Amino acid sequence: MTHAIALDVGGTTIKAGLVAPCGVLAAQRTRPTPQEPQALADTLADLARELRAHAVEMGLQLVNHVGIAVPGIVDEDVGIGVYSANLGWRDAPLKAMFEEAIGAPVAFGHDVRSGALAEMVWGTGSPTMIYLAIGTGIGAAVVLAGTTFNNHGYAGELGQALVSLHGRDVVLEHYASASGIVEQYARRSGIPAREINGAEEVFAAARSGNDHARATIEVAVTLLARSLGATLAILGSMDIVLGGGLARAGADLTEPLTQALTHRLRISPMPSVRPAKLGSWSQCLGAGYRALVAAGEIVIEPAGCDGMGTAREPGEPQ
Amino acid sequence: MTHAIALDVGGTTIKAGLVAPCGVLAAQRTRPTPQEPQALADTLADLARELRAHAVEMGLQLVNHVGIAVPGIVDEDVGIGVYSANLGWRDAPLKAMFEEAIGAPVAFGHDVRSGALAEMVWGTGSPTMIYLAIGTGIGAAVVLAGTTFNNHGYAGELGQALVSLHGRDVVLEHYASASGIVEQYARRSGIPAREINGAEEVFAAARSGNDHARATIEVAVTLLARSLGATLAILGSMDIVLGGGLARAGADLTEPLTQALTHRLRISPMPSVRPAKLGSWSQCLGAGYRALVAAGEIVIEPAGCDGMGTAREPGEPQ
């Protein structure tokens, strides 16, 4: 089967692999992320070479396009990394640099939006959704009728937006990201944050009746509902898909969030809130998806903004 | 010049007229709105006949399509009035009923979304924006790359959504619509609401230093910013166009709202907040726009959800 080389540039780690049109991920590799664009391009080229050699060895066909997902503010349409606080670039012509280093056309995209596309085609299957990647921060991707809404790269910066809590304005991700939940639980309980084993421990403590944990999660859910409520009122009800590390909380998160949103939206239909089905390699899968689409190995049925787009493999019945 | 018959069904009044592709509105008529769908269809047919006769008399050409804008929850794609509290319909096949009564194809749309389209093409010119119609209630329309985002009719129901105020959840339009501003000012000042001459009087009182009026408007602006902030973080910065009666407040509303949104969004680019350029006939103009598009008299350049659509008259250079 044809595969695409897919590279997901994280803040500390690059995830690389070969992605097939059925969504299977083969030959997974990881590598530390160099902090400078040219060094990064060279490392990506190394990984691409390594995966290409692996494909030859395994007798796998590869598409010419290489899929690459990067964090920060990313303008997919022009191939520019507008800004990344973590990786320190500003208006870097990443797509051109990567193509030069790798010697192949690059299908270039934002990491959270790539994860959302993978989730759309190989995970929950929602062609119109708000996808939240909740980990250290909170990134959002809006998928409308099968394509992401980019707005020159500025869509999705939800985590840093203010939300009101007890009459004060607070930064959403300080309370509702996986890290924020750990920090707030540490503050309430007096347990040092380094001794808390991630947000999962806070959800477990809440399940066993710990009041500090319950209050921490209640605040996180309330602030997520406040942030999403007006957006759903304006856009109309659509699926909310929760990805990133916090997706593992499952119904402990989706159920109270559904309730809180239903309360806020009143006359609109109840949104469906569900955990993402793909795990921590979703962004790498999404990078592969972009390459397979660019190479014509996956065909997107075009649709208007108010219709439904669908992705299918060529030859698959429509 | 070719014109389209355009009919805007309001809660109490129908506005009717002839709309030219340059956005000129001729032969304006108004008529009380019958409360029952069939009686409404007959009245619309009467108005269409009257406007057709007027066009003949004036030597104006008419397109075959008639544009009709209706309130409530409207599914444009299937031609159904899903729900209107005011007009009492539920799942009414309005487009088919209107076509039967008028004897012509109908370009059918939601009133606020029609107003937003008119604003896009003949007003502020923003192809990607959130348009708010602020009057008795607050309706929203999202225009993405030149087309409205409908979501089966459920997009735009912002006014009834909850927003948090001093730790309580309140209904946005009770505080931030033109009527809400009058009511809140009446409550604070002790002046009976019926003696207050609309939200304009409250803005005027605030300008001359009245503390009750200032506080009323400050709350309205804060709640609008809270409702729009997360949406702009998720979608990325885009124009906010304020229509409806409250648009007349001009800079008294747009300036503090810009400030409040800039505060909330932090890392995202500052949105442009501006008053709509079209007045109270914008929805009728939008109904005409839909008919002219349906008849091929205005050509929309298609674009992806992340690109920019443009509308032009046929023959106009691209």
Low-pLDDT runs of 5+ residues of chain A are 302-318
CATH architecture grouping of the largest domain in chain A: 2-Layer Sandwich
Give the termini distance of chain A in whole angstroms: 21 Å
Number of strands of chain A: 17
Strand order of the largest sheet of chain A: 3-2-1-4-8
Shape of chain A: globular
What oligomeric state do these chains adopt?
A: homodimer
Count of distinct structural domains of chain A: 2
Pfam families (chains A, B): ROK
Keywords (chains A, B): Kinase, Transferase
GO molecular function (chains A, B): kinase activity
InterPro entries (chains A, B): ATPase_NBD, ROK
Question: Would you kindly provide a written description of the structure presented here, covering whatever features stand out?
Answer:
2 copies of one chain form a homodimer. Chain A is an alpha/beta fold and 318 residues long. The first copy, chain A, has 2 domains: 2-123 and 279-312, ATPase, nucleotide binding domain (Nucleotidyltransferase, domain 5, 2-Layer Sandwich); 129-275, 2-Layer Sandwich (Nucleotidyltransferase, domain 5), CATH 3.30.420.40. Chain A contains 9 helices and 17 strands. Chain A has helices at 37-58, 94-102, 111-122, 172-176, 178-189, 198-207, 211-235, 251-265, 282-294; strands at residues 2-9, 13-19, 25-32, 61-70, 73-75, 80-83, 90-92, 106-110, 129-134, 138-144, 147-148, 162-165, 168-171, 239-243, 273-275, 299-301, 310-312. Chain A has a 5-stranded mixed sheet, with helices on both faces. The longest helix of chain A has 25 residues, at 211-235. Chain A is globular. In chain A, 55% of the residues are buried. The model of chain A is unreliable at 302-318 (pLDDT under 50). Chains A and B meet through strand 10, strand 11, strand 12, helix 7 and helix 8 of A and strand 10, strand 11, strand 12, helix 7 and helix 8 of B. Chains A, B: InterPro entries: ATPase_NBD, ROK. Chains A, B: Keywords: Kinase, Transferase. Chains A, B: GO terms for molecular function: kinase activity. Chains A, B: Pfam families: ROK (PF00480). Chains A, B: Belongs to the ROK (NagC/XylR) family.
